[in-house]
Amino acid sequence: MATSPGTEITAQAPSRRIAYSYCRICGGTCGIKIEMEDDRIIKVIGDKNNPSSEGYTCVKGRHIADLIYDKDRFLQCQRRRADGSLEPMATKAAVEEVGHKLRAIIDEHGPNSVAVYWGTFANMQPANWGWVAAFLKALKTDKFFSIMSIDQAPKWVAPWRVGSWAGGNQHARDSDVWFLMGINPLMSMWSNGFGMPHGTGRFREAKARGIKLIVMDPRRSETAEFADIHLQIRPGTDATVLAAMIRVILDEDLHDKEFCEAWVKSGDLAKLRAAIEQVTPEFAARIAGVPADDIIAAARLFGTGPKGMASTGTGSNMGPHSNIVEHLTLCLNIVCGRFPREGDPVPANVMQPQAQPVAQVNSPDRPWTRGFQSRFGYGKIGAPFASGSWRQELPSMSLPDEIMEPGEDRVRALIVIGSNPAGIIPDQERTVRALKQLELLVTMEPLPVETARLAHYILAPSMWLERPEHTSGFEYMYDGPFAQYTPAVIDPPPGLWHDWQYIGGLAQAMGLTLEVNGRTYAPGDPLPSAEEYQKHMAEGGRVPLDEIKTYPHGHMFDDLEGAIVAPANDASGRFELLADDVVPEFEAAMAHDPTSVEHPFILASRRVRDTMNSTGRRMPTLAKKPYNPCFMHPDDQARVGVSEGELVRIASEHGVIVAVVGTDSKLKPGVVSITHAYGDLPGQDNDPRKFGANVGRLIPNDHLQKVVGMPRMTGFQVSLEPVREV
Ligand SMILES: Nc1nc2c(c(=O)[nH]1)N[C@H]1C(S)=C(S)[C@@H](COP(=O)(O)OP(=O)(O)OC[C@H]3O[C@@H](n4cnc5c(=O)[nH]c(N)nc54)[C@H](O)[C@@H]3O)O[C@H]1N2
Ligand SMILES: Nc1nc2c(c(=O)[nH]1)N[C@H]1C(S)=C(S)[C@@H](COP(=O)(O)OP(=O)(O)OC[C@H]3O[C@@H](n4cnc5c(=O)[nH]c(N)nc54)[C@H](O)[C@@H]3O)O[C@H]1N2
Ligand code: SF4
Ligand SMILES: [Mo]
User: From CA 199, how far away is CA 202, in angstroms rounded?
Assistant: First the structure.
């Protein structure tokens, strides 16, 4: 019998295989089950057997392969020709050419003429941390910048100025109350002490266990839906509400007197109380636009505890007085004594060494006043008191000045790792103008985003599932002692390197010797393989990597014992609740009154599920629309005279953008909310329906917050008017 045409051709069945791994698009690190045909990913779903994420994934994770196979991905390194077009280059040749150019710039202008910019996807690969730290050290440059200084940098300022508790933090798992401000972990997976939520299950469990939730957010966010008390404030008014809550707690004697007596600088409690004398719940209610009774109820609920902390996210850390918001959050936790005490258990680390918590205060310090001081008035700042922290950086908002202002140590070359600064640093026009003045802009970037379109060289990296990786760097985010290792599920496109290999390669091409994880790599030395390096990184962890590898779905190491908080060995440290240099900022925050200005709307920052900052924004399988709507309450749409899908002109004190109207009835009326990292390069994005709008253009580069220069990215006044299309 003759075979029909086609049967012969398919005689060899495609080879199918299943792999387990975890998604690395956001900090959720959700377990995934990957189906492949002939080594090409055809389907990704949640891994039900992953004990951390329990099968949860979001649309981004399920479509991770679409990003990896994006038709616009750079499959080779690129060099820009004089006519502006790109030409592909062999990887090694590109690395050597860039290395030699960097060397020449440093030889002529000194190490501080070369800067490094570190972004979200540098951070999402813990392998980068050691290599970049070693690279910066070998380069001898002070010019390191990262997204942290336009993200949650007040978390670096406040604990240095107030002091920090060496005994660690309390955990939501066994707390009675938790206060979440300006954070939406159900969507962002950014947990900040609450434990990665992975869908609504964890919140339901926590609520069933009896935890009370206070959520402060101008939007009835996915997280706020679970709140016992939702303080739907005007954006930018967090500090006033926090001050009023502290006032209620002190006046009603709900604070932890013993803790304050032992650990707060003598007289500081009275000093703080005197400073908030005017900030009654009624006063805060008027500023924030919420009932005074709700502020009082939130203060009582939190103050009664007895256990549980207040924690903040970007919404609270991006406002006009963000240093003070974080300061008062810390004060609230201190006043209520919400820290583990001597003898209390602290959760176990798995792949990280277990630090010994101690029941004492690390006294305030101001490390930014020592060492390198930039021409623009900044010292270097990094995470306080974190053991092994390598980040010491300058504010993002000073990068344009560093590039554009003539001077001895002007930045002439910039190496960008996993970031899109041309799209995400506020005051986009100024940022882009600066980037265009660089002699050398090199970006490690898989996609033709704004920064890549300005770069002289693009070093094309591997992407998520093309790398072996483990979760050691995310341990602090999990709800329990979880760890997972994943091999590379597919190979990177031929010839492409991992980001950290580019760093190692650039160093070698520059003649630099790097010391990484106790090993030395001189020019010409072979770099470790990706698997070997994962092993180096796991050295010193509590559970050996080989054991972690036996659990392909990851494992909750519930048997591991945590640490016990040790008695103080130096009880002299004290928290300072209102140091002299904090007072002017504090007074300005308390004077903040958004009701006193003419413009009728306040803009709030937000994230959306479909995209990770600028990643995925024009991916039709991910983002429902290729633009970022300006979300408005239906009442506000009627007020302005616009409806969903129409265009609206948004004007701030600094700039004007045109966006497409979206509807969100969960927003506080009077507040509009729009996500960042959309739009295009200035002058190239005439169609908001195709590209969206860049919110950063509404924000001035005014270095608003002391120490880190955080700009005001939420809680600023805008006016809206319809754009009549013909
Ligand atoms: N899907 C998705 N996930 C992400 C990201 C993403 O782009 N998409 N980005 C990642 C990054 S880089 C980060 S840093 C984290 C951030 O994680 P989160 O801080 O949780 O970020 P958001 O989801 O924007 O939540 C911030 C909340 O603050 C509210 N808000 C805005 N202004 C104010 C204000 O003035 N005061 C108060 N109290 N609330 C305010 C907003 O309405 C919003 O609900 O998320 C990460 N995860
Ligand atoms: N107005 C306003 N501005 C904001 C914010 C806001 O809320 N409002 N949020 C701020 C915050 S919190 C942050 S974190 C920043 C985000 O700023 P960025 O970190 O710059 O934002 P991303 O879009 O996540 O940029 C990451 C880049 O890495 C690329 N990438 C993806 N995978 C890889 C990889 O494996 N290797 C490498 N080398 N690159 C990869 C992506 O294509 C993308 O271009 O934006 C900040 N800017
Ligand atoms: S992007 Fe989605 S699937 Fe991936 S880790 Fe984050 S929440 Fe999980
Ligand atoms: Mo961020």
Answer: 7
Residue 179 Cβ contacting ligand 1 at under 6 Å: no
| Residue to mutate (ligand 3; options 22, 34, 60; most atoms within 8 A of CB) | 60
Tokens for 669? 């009326």
Return the ligand 1 atom nearest residue 673 CA.
42
Which tokens in the block code for residue 365?
């310090």
Q: Degrees (nearest 5) of the Cα angle 20, 26, 32?
A: 15
Place of tokens 């270097």: 380
Residues in the chain: 726
* Residue 358, token pair as written in the block: 């101690």
Which has the closest alpha carbon to 42: 24, 21, 64, 11?
64
**Residue that is written with structure tokens 């004290």 in the block:** 574
Count Cβ atoms below 10 Å from residue 571 Cβ, excluding itself: 13
Beta carbon of 29 within 6 Å of any ligand 3 atom: yes
According to DSSP, the residues that pair with 723 across neighbouring strands are 647
How far does the centroid of ligand 2 lie from the alpha carbon of residue 617, in Å?
11
Q: Parallel, antiparallel, or unpaired: how do β-strands 77-80 and 457-459 relate? A: antiparallel
Q: What is the per-residue pLDDT across 185-212, written as a single tens digit (0 to 9) for each? A: 999 998 877 888 888 988 899 999 999 9
Q: Which ligand is nearest to the CA of 61?
A: 3
Distance separating alpha carbons of residues 624 and 630, to the nearest angstrom: 14
For the entire predicted model, the pTM comes to 0.97
d(CA 281, CA 247): 8
Digit-coded pLDDT (tens) for 140-187: 999 999 999 999 999 999 999 999 999 999 998 899 999 999 999 999
How is residue 440 written in tokens? 């050398």
What residue owns the CA closest to ligand 3's atom 6? 26
Two tokens at 383?
Answer: 């995470």
Q: What strands, in cross-sheet order, belong to the sheet with 40-46? A: 16-22, 31-37, 40-46
Tokens standing for residue 512:
């630099």
Q: Which residues surround ligand 4, an ion (CB under 5 A)?
A: 151
